[in-house]
Write a structure and sequence with these properties.
- The complex is a heterodimer.
- By secondary structure, chain A is mostly helical.
- Chain A has 2 domains: 5-86, Orthogonal Bundle (Rna Polymerase Sigma Factor, Chain: A), CATH 1.10.1740; 98-175, Arc Repressor Mutant, subunit A.
- Helices cover 68% and strands 2% of the residues of chain A.
- Chain A is built from 9 helices and 1 strand; from the N terminus they run ααααβααααα.
- In chain A, α1 crosses α2, α2 (16-37) packs across α3 (41-57) and α2 crosses α4 (68-84).
- Chain B is of the alpha+beta class.
- Chain B folds into 2 domains: 20-79, no CATH class; 86-189, Immunoglobulins (Immunoglobulin-like, Sandwich), CATH 2.60.40.
- Chain B contains 6 helices and 12 strands.
- In chain B, α2 crosses α4 (44-56).
- Chain B is rod-shaped and about 105 Å long.
- Chain B starts with a strand and ends with a strand.
- The chains are: A mainly alpha, B alpha+beta.
- Chain A binds chain B through residues 14, 16, 19-20, 23-24, 27-32, 35-36, 41, 45-46, 48-50, 52-53, 56-57, 102-108, 110, 115, 118, 122, 133, 137-138, 165, 168-169, 172, and chain B through 2-8, 10-12, 14-16, 18-23, 26-27, 29-31, 33-35, 38, 57-59.
- β1 (104-106) of chain A pairs antiparallel with β1 of chain B, so a sheet runs across the interface.
């Protein structure tokens, strides 16, 4: 929890001072999420703005103040998913051994890439690949949760992840 | 040989703590979104911030376009609802003239009407002697009819102002005040 409980009380009273404090505490990590799920900075800014407005309007639905970190994060991810929902087109499942497709690189080779470069590569993936990769790899959702969030089957989620990793491997192999 | 790392592990490590600086002015836009009334009733600065937030929200572009269209239509309606017309027939004796030109002059100053005349419209008189001026603002006007040059009527009647005056000094001023009058004009015999 990045803010004292009093700040959340102020937010519940619609006090702009509390809302600004909450925004300052969470804006950086949430903007990171928005950038990962979006295609570019401009769209990430839109998602951040829309996500925080939802946070403040729905704060009364937060059951436990201790879960605020997870709650805000989930709102931001859902806002990003809604933003791209119309563009999420999932290809047919592929019959592959998903576990055997992990690509490996020398750690020092990958570390040559900056955050910006890694982000640009991720943002360049098709919306479906990028979304499942973010949800599974970075945000820790499992395939069952992803299938429910996106309205797809678990196998489709797995195949999207495999395709995302294969695409990243192809791009990184070319660069490194 | 260093330890190998998979792509997803590397991305997970790199982005799990990814906290870039948020965009400038993002808070102001969010604040405008959650406190629209406060922004509205606040200072000029608040007003500007509200406009900025509204302007930068690309999701509102279709709404803005629709609002602009409605505003434009209202302006056109209001603008046309304040306009008037003058219509009538031109006579040479008992008969209506066949073809000619009608001139509308606006009188800008009641105190010095003859020094402040300005031609604002000229329209054709049809072969039934009918003329019409449209889109006229409230105000004071003079109307003059010239019969078609070279016609029989021109030989027998003079160009004339309303009401049967040959010179604008004697002409009668027509006052338009939220009405669309009919003004028949009789040419002066030679």
């Amino acid at each position: 929890m990045k803010v004292p409980a009093e700040v959340l009380d102020q937010c519940l009273l619609n006090d702009p001072r509390g809302q600004e404090a909450l925004y300052k505490a969470y804006s950086s990590p949430m903007f990171g999420i928005c950038l990962r799920y979006s295609r570019n900075r401009m769209e990430a800014e839109d998602i951040l703005q829309e996500g925080f407005i939802k946070v403040f309007k729905n704060l009364s639905q937060l059951h436990s103040k201790e879960s605020i970190d997870w709650w805000i994060r989930r709102i931001m991810v859902n806002t990003a998913l809604n933003y791209y929902r119309s563009q999420l087109k999932f290809q047919n499942e592929v019959s592959l051994n998903f576990e055997s497709s992990d690509a490996t690189f020398q750690e020092d080779a990958l570390s040559k890439l900056s955050y910006d470069e890694l982000l640009r590569i991720l943002q360049g993936l098709p919306a479906g690949y990028r979304t499942v990769f973010n949800l599974f790899i970075i945000d820790g959702y499992n395939h069952k949760e992803i299938s429910e969030l996106l309205g797809i089957s678990e196998n489709t989620s797995k195949s999207q992840l495999w395709r995302a990793k294969a695409s990243l491997k192809k791009i990184l192999t070319r660069i490194l | 040989m260093q330890e190998k790392d998979t792509i997803e592990e590397y991305y997970r490590k790199a982005f799990s703590e990814f906290e870039p600086p948020p965009p400038e002015q993002a808070w102001e836009k969010i604040k405008a979104g959650i406190h629209p009334l406060e922004t509205k009733k606040g200072s000029m600065e608040g007003f500007k911030k509200g406009i900025a937030g509204f302007y930068h929200s690309r999701n509102l572009y279709p709404l803005l376009a629709a609002a602009a269209m409605v505003l434009l239509l209202v302006m056109i309606f209001v603008s046309y609802s304040n306009k008037h017309s003058i219509r009538g027939h031109a006579y040479a004796g008992e008969a209506r003239i066949c073809m000619g030109t009608a001139y509308l002059f606006k009188v800008y100053d009641k105190a010095k009407p003859l020094d402040t005349l300005k031609l604002v419209q000229s329209v054709s008189v049809d072969n039934n002697g009918f003329y019409q001026f449209s889109g006229i603002d409230n105000g004071n006007y003079l109307i003059r009819i010239n019969p078609l040059p070279g016609s029989e009527i021109t030989r027998n009647f003079m160009p004339s102002y309303y009401d049967q005056d040959s010179a604008f000094r004697e002409a009668i001023v027509i006052k338009i005040q939220n009405e669309d009058p009919t003004v028949d004009i009789h040419l002066i015999p030679r």
